[in-house]
Amino acid sequence: MSTSGLFDNPHSSTSPQKHHVDKKAEEPDYGSTKALFETTNKSEAGTEEDPKANSGLLVVKNDAHDRYWVGEAFQLSPQEIARISNEPAHTSLAEALGTDNEAFYNQLVALVENPPQGEQSMDIGQALSYKLDEIRLRALRAGQVHQINRIESVEDQGYVIALKADNDIWKEKYNKLVEQMEDLDAYRKEEKRDAATWEREEKVSVRSFAGNRSVSLDPNINIEVPKQYRPQLSAAELKVFEGGSDMNVVFKFIKSLDFHIDTLESVFNELQKIEYTISYLRGTPRIWAKEWRNNTKDGNRTWSNLMIAFKDRWLPDNAHLHLLEKLERAELKRGSVDTFNDEYRQTLGLMGIDNLRKDSNVLLSLQQHSMATKGGLNLEQLMDYASKLLMRQPKLMTIEPRQTNNYAKNASSSSNTAKTKKPQVITINNVEDGNDDFINAIAESSNRDRGPRECYACGATDHLISHCDPEKRKAFWGKVNKKRAEMTAGKE
Fold it and tell me: Could you tell me the sign of the dihedral formed by the alpha carbons of 304, 305, 307, 312, in that order?
């Protein structure tokens, strides 16, 4: 659409009225908008006392009075202001201006046809005033948003600079750590130590504590569990101990902790074991453990001593009765022999019974009774007889095999003894047994106490020479061969 007559000179060769005739033929009639860009002489529009009335932009033309556009303020409604504030500032400003003058003119025409809310009617001049106020408000809004974005941009630039500085610091630390790892790998390749016998040397500082010479613990003691042990320790869950008088909680904690320490025995030293234990204590138990660690002398600061003190502190005096009742209720089931033995051994350990050596007399008695029983003994019978033997006679006598020449005499003597002497009632695990001739025979045997068999090499009673240490066995046979050689040389 042409805008050539916006500020045309009225004395120019181009006739404004002819121009309006052409636009009337080209454009539809919008009422009072057909003379928007028509210019007139000042004398025709008004007097010199009303300068705004002769602005040069005719917006209303009629026979009674011609009205020109003046720069009047147009108050936008609160709804329009809220709508403009919620729209994107810069893009909405560009849309309000239009892509060109023709698009802008079309927006003015749209306002005349559909006035904003609250306006009954609007001519082209009022639409122009409204549009300019709208554009001005959008421009102010765009300036505010730009200022906010500029401030945020400056803050973001400072944050990026700080991040780059931190990144440089961490990169330098990483490079130093890589260099240290390379030096450590080279050191490990050079040193040749036997992994089975190598023990790490503890380098701890010495300080005075409460008047006694004590070793201060390194605050950087590493108790990180190696990766290859983590699945096993996760399966045996170790919960944090916070104290209390529930014996089951205490026993469960000790049992789980003992498994963890036993698994890490070849990895942790004594200080690491103690620190690992303290890491699973909370509250009063943790304070108590730290005091024990700081007040214990060098040679006594071991994990086993810590557990002895822990049991003495947190187990009640009647704990052994609870454990004994637990052993009484223990039941051996088929397919769970190993589990039963392990539970039994751990319970005895909590009771302070750690001497679990094999009694050769009991083994011999069980073998003889099994051979004398038709079909042998099943597992239940075997465990039952073993329990009775151990409870009846702590130190059993070795039973001599009966001789064939005095079999009748022994049988007669045994028969008379059974008739004249009242059989003793034996109570084991709340089970009375007064008619078991085999048990009574072992308990009342008058045979000489031969004692347990001993190993020829070291004198131990829990194994024979075939299972003794190879070094001790070699030394023993060396002495025997030397003595034989001396005896042979003497005869010659």
Answer: positive
Q: Where are the domains of the chain?
A: 78-174, 229-316, 358-392
Q: What is the pLDDT along the chain (492 residues), one digit of tens a residue?
A: 333 333 344 433 333 333 333 433 344 443 343 334 343 433 344 444 455 455 556 565 555 566 666 666 667 777 777 777 777 878 778 888 888 888 888 888 888 788 777 666 777 777 787 888 888 888 888 888 888 888 989 899 999 999 999 999 999 888 888 888 877 766 666 554 444 344 444 433 333 333 333 333 455 678 888 888 888 888 878 888 888 777 778 888 888 888 898 888 888 888 888 889 998 998 888 999 888 988 888 788 889 888 888 888 877 666 666 666 665 555 555 555 556 566 666 666 665 655 556 667 767 777 777 777 777 777 677 777 776 766 655 444 444 444 444 444 454 444 454 445 444 444 444 444 445 554 444 444 444 445 567 787 888 877 888 788 888 888 888 888 888 888 777 666
Rg (the chain; Cα; Å): 54
